[in-house]
Amino acid sequence: MLKHLRTTATAAALLVSGTLLIGAGTAAAHPGKPGHGKPDPGTPLRVAADRAHVKFGTAVNTTALADDATYRRITAQQFSSVTAENVMKWETLQPQRGVYDFTEADRLVAFARAHGQSVRGHTLLWHNQLPAWLTEGLADGSIDAAELRGILRDHITTVVRHFKGKLYQWDVVNEVFEEDGSYRNSIWLEKLGPGYIADAFRWAREADPNVKLFFNDYNVEGVNAKSTAYYGLAKQLKARGVRVDGFGIQGHLSTQYGFPGDVGANLKRFADLGLQTAFTEVDVRVPLPADPAKLATQADYYRGLLSACLGSRSCTSFTVWGFADQYSWVPGVFDGEGAACLYDESYRTKPAFDALRAELRQGRH
Ligand code: G3I
Predict the structure, then answer these.
(1) Disulfide check for 275: which of 163, 270, 317, 349 has CB 3.0–4.6 Å away?
(2) Is 86 inside any structural domain?
(3) For ligand 1, what atom is nearest to the CA of residue 59?
(4) Tell me, what's the pLDDT at 17?
């Protein structure tokens, strides 16, 4: 399914015998006015981001977090927000019907807490990474539509309650539109009709009135049929009293396609509707092998998205979908493309890393 992703602490960061300690205190959150002062050359992204009043996040591979000390150190040092790359999805959280397993997800939340990081929840409803008991039960007819609705309600309620007070945003529905703006054909649409989207937001809201509830999708950076479908739905839901708080733009880009147009205008129209926005899964793949020219273009693309975020008051966070090439999902899905992250496989930073930090230093504009 992803083949068509086309467009596409602060001073208290101490490295003590391999363990990075970051001051979790909020006193470090806004040390100066945006754009003022000159951070040291080695300033972590999260410190520059604090000064620009935006969260700077990464998706986290929890296996790497457990096994790879360098990965762990960089996760703590550079990022002020984390998203579970996989372990808050259905197949992990509800591996058997009615049996929930929060072990891995709770470990990530504990790590984030220990390092003064915020957590984005991903995701309460998707058509991928569903547990076998669910897909098989639907396929053989042992689970019918009415039951499916109950299962969805139970999952959202249980999961949102479990993390209540610990997350700042949830991707409530992920990738629910096709490229042409029609509803994505999924088990959810097929069995429940499009009303499942409003239901998902209502149930999540009931379970935690404070966490911000988001749409999330790819190929919605600019103004196009798909992003317009979200815009229309957000308006419609608002008119019906169903509150949606935010629009998450994944930002999976490839340098072989042009940089998406109208990103600023797109953010603005959602902001005008009263929604927050966020870049939630940014990476920029290049045709392999990478070379300096391709990495320079990659840096421009990363910087372009961050600049749009910093140009909109509505934009709360900028999250990269992993930071180290050896753990990236990209090469497994896109033949001949890769090198999509801010660090290479030996943990050397790329020009994109410097470009993002330079952009953060400019602050909001
Ligand atoms: O958990 C199994 C493990 O038990 C097994 O041994 C191993 C063998 O391949 O597979 C493991 O599952 C993998 C899973 O990631 C956890 O590591 C799947 O094969 C693999 O397909 C899965 O890929 C994830 C993908 O979503 C699934 O569609 C990627 O890591 C993850 O980066 C990616 O993330 C999505 C976002 O959630 C939504 N937006 C697009 C984005 C990129 O595809």
Answers:
(1) 270
(2) yes
(3) 32
(4) 27
